[in-house]
Specification:
The protein is an alpha+beta fold. It is built from 15 helices and 29 strands. Helix 2 (58-68) packs across helix 4 and helix 6 crosses helix 9.
Length: 654
């Protein structure tokens, strides 16, 4: 009995030992296999059936694979790639974008999906693409039908044609306001039956704060590009022309300013005159006004006015152009008050000075070209006093000795008055005109209104002042301008000055905290976030600030949201049309993008951008946003064109 049991026990032990030995022998093989894989010696290749091409970015994979093979790289072209995504990927890898900070996004409005993105959420400096955010917020805030008012208030409503108190011109930021518009306000006041004002004409620019320089209120302290002063009460072309003319006989010299204003003073200390005759007579005069496009327009009207003619051999040292302000000039004998009015109409013949020289004033020298530059509209670009000498050679018949004749004009300012001191003489049958920037825009607006009312036989007891209207003031009349007109200039022409005016209009529309720019930033941020537009950091309205940051996603989202807004038509029409107008009038001509692409451009020394709408040959509508930061701006713009043209030309995958 014992023997079978023992035999059975040893059999079980033997089997157990064999199993244990087998397991020990297999362990090293597993370890060796694992080690081999980790070292990359053995790598199992998947079968071709296991590769599933990605529905998206497939062209990207193909492109990268082709770049590895040098022989195949040259055979790959934009035309050879079938999908729109693949074509855009091909362009995005252009060598001119290497080393740059680039963000690209294309969205199909038709399919409601993103077609292509590159650095979609990366913040980049948008340059003038900032204006798209400014105008979007402004249209959302004010509405497409908003009109910008320039208002006239009075202390008390007129009674029997008499205003007992002051008249206030109140601006709300209209950057296209012209002298003609101020004259229109004067006519509206007269149409109210006003015959007398027992007070002053005041200018009120308190709708904005007193900080007028973008470089400061943006926090940049970098000008980048000069703009006129940003004011609530402003003028599109604040310039004044001083006109000196002589009649054909050479015995009658007249001096005037265009426009006539009560704050312009003409002083002619070296001009000898025979007598000063002041009379009231009906005359047909040519009124010359400066239009919003800086072109002189002349119209003939018949009116009664007081005129002062000047002839040789009498003496006076002060002349003032159509003004009720009567400054005194000390002479050796006594103080002589200025005559109330002088002739304002220039002679028919005008000539542009052939030789204009500039003398130094202080340490700065200003050339004539400076005054032709549109950014020199403001009153803080010039030194306190600059003398301009206009020289011309007279005709031999009028000056046989060949002596040179000419005048010099010294321009200075004191408080609300701009003074022009004229020396020299004008040859017979000649007119000399010199244009100067307006020093004090607000005072000049009040001065033009003051002068125009007096010319319309409205008696004014006071002068001109810079003064805020009281809360109890009564609205008398206003001049309004369509807001869409300003938006068009901002986006289509990328006008930095107008953009900053719109920026501050937004800030001025809400209760003040003492800083209009801060108000604007807060309101714009609120509007954008309310519409789901995130990741924006905006310091100004024009995009001159290099600290502005947005993402391609923010631009795409905003342009997508704008499509559903009531103001979309005005927003869309404000953009430049490729090959047709605005800042893209010379771009993408002769392509499917010409007349099709509506966009906004952006340009700084180290930034370029293009964003907007375009329709492809497939009938689908797309939104695109391209922003590049780097030192290759010229190439960036060519690549922007390539992206938009590719979308516009796209019909279907091959």
């Amino acid at each position: 009995m014992i023997q079978p049991v023992v035999y059975k026990f040893f059999s079980i032990v033997t089997i157990a030992l064999m199993v244990f030995h087998t397991s020990i022998a297999k362990e090293p093989q597993k370890a060796k296999s694992k080690s081999t894989v980790s070292k990359g010696v053995v790598k199992k290749q998947p079968s071709k059936k296991s590769i599933k091409p990605r529905q998206k970015n497939s062209s990207k994979t193909t492109l990268k694979k082709t770049e590895v093979k040098g022989e195949e790289t040259s055979s790959l072209t934009l035309e050879s790639i079938g999908t729109l995504e693949g074509k855009l990927e091909y362009i995005s890898q252009d060598k001119n974008w290497k080393g740059s900070k680039v963000g690209i996004a294309v969205y199909s409005l038709t399919d409601k999906e993103l077609v292509f993105t590159k650095n979609y959420k990366q913040p980049v400096t948008p340059a003038s693409l900032t204006k798209l955010f400014t105008t979007f917020a402004a249209l959302e805030h004010f509405g497409a039908n908003y009109t910008i008012p320039t208002e006239v208030y009075v202390d008390k409503a007129p009674e029997n044609g008499i205003i007992k108190g002051n008249v206030y011109v109140y601006g709300t930021g209209d950057p296209k306001l012209s002298f003609q518009d101020i004259e229109a306000l004067a006519e509206k006041i007269q149409q109210k039956g006003v015959k007398k004002i027992e007070g002053s004409v005041c200018a009120d620019g308190s709708f904005f704060d007193k900080q007028t320089q973008r470089a400061i209120y943006s926090g940049d302290n970098e000008e980048v590009q000069a703009t006129p002063a940003i004011r609530a009460l402003c003028l599109e072309n604040p310039s004044v022309s001083v006109v000196a003319s002589n009649n054909s006989a050479g015995n009658r010299t007249t001096f005037s300013t265009i426009p006539p204003s009560s704050n312009f003073v003409l002083i002619t200390p070296n001009t000898k005159v025979k007598e000063v005759i002041t009379k009231e007579e009906p005359v047909k005069e040519k009124q010359t006004t400066i239009s919003s496009k800086s072109k002189v327009q002349t119209t003939t009207t018949e009116t009664k006015r007081k005129t002062t003619s000047i002839a040789p051999k009498a003496q006076t040292k002060l002349q003032k152009t159509q003004s009720t302000i009567k400054p005194l000039v000390k002479t050796k004998k006594k103080e002589v008050p200025a005559p109330k009015k002088t002739i304002a109409a220039p002679s028919k013949k005008k000539e542009t000075p052939k030789n204009i020289t500039t003398k130094k004033s202080g340490s700065k020298k200003i050339s004539q070209l400076d005054f032709d530059a549109p950014q020199l509209y403001g009153d803080y670009y010039l030194p306190t006093s600059v003398i301009y000498t206009i020289k011309r050679k007279p005709k031999a018949s009028t000056n046989k000795k060949g002596n040179k004749s000419g005048i010099s004009i010294q321009e200075t300012s004191k408080e609300n008055t701009q003074i022009f001191t004229i020396n020299g003489s004008v040859a017979p049958n000649r007119t000399v005109t010199q244009t100067f920037p307006v020093r004090n825009v607000e005072a000049t607006i009040a001065g033009v209104l003051h002068n125009r009312l007096e010319s319309g036989f409205v008696t004014i007891s006071g002068g001109i002042e810079l003064k805020h209207k009281p809360q109890s003031a009564v609205l008398l009349t206003s001049f309004v301008r369509p807001f869409s007109e300003i938006i068009n200039i901002v986006n289509k022409n990328s006008n930095n000055y107008f953009a900053e005016q719109v920026f501050k209009m937004i800030g001025g529309s809400r209760t003040k905290d003492g800083n209009t720019a801060n108000n604007a930033r807060k309101i714009i941020k609120e509007i954008l976030e309310k519409n789901g537009i995130q990741d924006t950091e905006l310091h100004d309205g024009s995009g001159l600030s290099r600290r502005n940051l947005v993402t391609p996603e923010a631009l795409i989202t905003m342009l997508k949201v704008a499509k559903s807004k009531k103001f979309f038509k005005e927003y869309y029409n404000s953009m430049t049309i490729a090959g047709i107008d605005g800042t893209t009038r010379s771009r993408m001509k002769g392509t499917c993008a010409e007349g099709n692409c509506h966009a906004k451009t952006g340009t700084l020394r180290n930034a370029s951008g293009l964003a907007g709408y375009v329709t492809g040959l497939n009938g689908k509508e797309y939104i695109f946003a391209i922003i590049s930061n780097g030192n290759n701006v010229g190439s960036y713009k060519r690549l922007e064109n390539s992206v938009v043209q590719t979308i516009a030309n796209y019909k279907s995958a091959k």
